[in-house]
Structures are given as C-alpha cells and as structure tokens.
Amino acid sequence: MTTVIETCRIPPPRGVAAKLFLPLSFLDMSWLHSSPMYILNFYNHPCSEAEFSNSIVPNLKHSLSLTLKHYLPIAANLLYPLDTDTSKPVIRYTSGDTVALTIADSSLDFDELVANHAKESDQFYDLLQPPAPLTEEENYQIAPLISLQATLFPNRGICIVMNFHHSLCDGRSIVGFLKAWAMINKSAGDAVFVSKNGESLPFFEKPVSEDSRRVDGMFWNAMKKIPFKTVVSHPRPTNRVRASFILRQSDIIKLKHRFLSAKPNLVRVSDFVVATAYFWTTLVKSHGSAGDENEVFVFPADVRGSRNALFDPPVPLHYFGNCLGGGVVSVEHRKLAAEDGFVVAAEAIGDVIKAQIYDGDEFLKSPENQLSKMSKPERVFGVLVAYGSPKFDFKDADFGWGEARKVEVLSLDDEKYGMLLGNSDDGGLIIGMSLPNDMMESFASTFKDGLVGGKVYGKSRM
Asked: One Pfam annotation, family name (predicted)?
C-alpha cells in the first residue's frame, strides 16, 4: 500500500514573468480529449525515511521551484472555453500558479515493480493520486496540466511520478523538463543547467505559418464538438500484465542481416525499423487469426529541426510543446503472420518513414487529413502504438541517484496494444508491453523462439 505523507504546492521562484498565454496549435488540440499520461521513473536508492524526509524531499521541492523558472508552462493551467464558438483553449500562467507535488511512501515490492518479467499492471496504480477536478472561472473551465509525486520505498528506492495532460507537450518536451529538474536537483542549483543549455533553453512560442493557422481552425471546429473532461478514473482492474523485452545489439545486427539478405537491393536499415518490425510481427502472431483484416502500427515522428511542408524554417529543437507528426503503417494480418512477416513489416515501416517523414515535402503535408481518419476509422484487427524514443530516454534523468532503473508508462494500458521504447545497457533496445496475461505468455514464447538458434521465424538471419 502507498501512504500519502503530504501534498504541497510548489511555485516558481520570484522574478519570473507575471503572466504567460499560449494558444493551442492543432498539434496540441489533437490531444485535448486524450487521457492523462502517467510516467513512472524508478530509482535504486536505498535510504531511510529520515533521510528521505529531512534531505531528499526538501531538495526536490527547492529544485522543482528553480526548474519552473525555466519551464513556466509546467505551472500553468489549461483554460477551456465554456462558449466554444467565441473562444479557443489557451495555456495560461499567472502569478500565484503552482505545481502539486505529493510526497508518499509505499510498502509495495520495489524489486517486483522494476523486474522485466510479467507482473500485474494494477499494482502500479497504487502509486497514483486522482487527477485534480475541473474548476470554473468566468468563461472557462480550468484544468491543471501536471502533477508530480515522489514515493519512497524504504531502504530500497524512490519513484518519481509525472501525471500530465498531453495538450501541454509531447514526450521530448516532458523528458526535457524531467532531465532539467533532475540536473538542478543533483547540482543543488540551476547554474549548471543554464550553462549547459546556453541559447537552447526551452522555447515556448507556438510555431505558426499561414497554412498552420488554417489547420488550427479546422482542428478546433472538430475538437469543440467533443465534451471536455480531464478527470478519468484509473483503469483498474486492467486485467493486464506488464513485461519488458530486450533486443540486444547482437540481436539487432542479426535482424538487419536477415532483412537485408531478403532485400539485397537495399544497403541499410535502421535499428528502429527492424526492432519495431520484430515486435509488431511477434504481437500479430500472439493474438490469433484475422484473415484479411489489417494490422496497424502507429509511431510518432518529431518535427523539430526537420524540413517539413508546414513550417519554414523548421521548428527549433528546443521548442517546448507538442510537435509530432508520425507514421501509420497498415498491412494485412495474414501477411504479417506468415513466415516472412518480419521482412514484410520492416519493408512497410521503412517505406512509410522514407515517404512520409524523410521527404520534407511530404512531412506534415495536409495534417487535416487526420480529422477524416478520426471520423471514419479504418476497420482493423489490431493497432499497435509506439511510445517513447531511444533518442530521448526518460531513464537518463539523474537526480543524484543514477539513471532510472526502470520506466513505466501506464498509458500503455489505455491502448489496445502499446509498446514503450528505451535504451538497454548494452546498446540495444528495451521495449515494454502491456497485454492480457494469456497473450503475454504467447508473446514471450514467440519472442524468445524467434531469437533462439540463429533463426527469425524459421529462416536464417544471415
């Protein structure tokens, strides 16, 4: 069980701007009605309750306040208009706004929670506090954008929980905030953070172009038809288990050889392509027959710093907010479930990346097409959604306790199927999954069989 010790409100330090208003772009609006994101970072750090209360907690509070000076939208609120015909949503910070930080301790088994083997998903929700309810002010509903929690596992470790509304920002931005908080906490001040980031401190002004203004209006016209609510019950019981699977660098190299031997006209293939293709086809083989229905794989693609069809010049790398395009790969189930399904999947993923993301004339071209897909979803058997990226890994945030032992994204439970990508210690990839128990057993068996004996689904990798 987890016991709350205190919930405090952390303000930015004195001297920050008194007000900040950020209108939502279509990149933010597409997340308005999504469920909150829960990120859990577990750290090996054996300490007593006295050390936690007398040293660690005060440092976390102080460093969080200093971090808010550089990440002011974290302390802001989302204002959603009551009259959606005359006003649009806005992120607003005013002097006096704060971030909720809960301090707790837990008797759950830390080693069980951070293990890679399958374990019940429901136990992780004991570490969460309910989202704050909506309030009203004049013509707006007001929703806090983030809350934080630090939980002690006495003499074993600490868990830092972030609960944030996706309309605030994407994964790259929230990782940036977490790493900044960690760096400032570790160095007992923000001088190191400022010196290391220099002119690349977070940039909040929304990217705008003539076309993006038009798309903003189209997205708002669609989103305002959906009732706004941010308070959702935690999805318990989930009837799911969580497990993590490692593709070592040697596995990835062999998967590349397997793919390139089947496609000799190609000269290279990325780690991301072969890893996600392998997990996707393993999943497909784990959930039964679907005949000619399609399987869909959805993955994010960061727009920052990349030439695209909407913003010229490209969005700065240090932009804080939502800045995601993405790829959608659709393949018939029977093709992925076939013996050469891995090759089919890798080729399909690679083709989408090349055509929709690497091609700057196509990347972010006609984003309003997403709206028609939302209203008329494709009939599919299964959808796999990728979370995270090895390029910006949550576990790299070091509060002075080393990198995180384990990261869990509870939003995987909200998807039919989801996968969380991160870096493993040997230069490979670790991927987390949340599945029904019987399906997880099938997935684990198929995953292992495909990597044993120099074969991938019965064919030589070399």
From this structure: Transferase
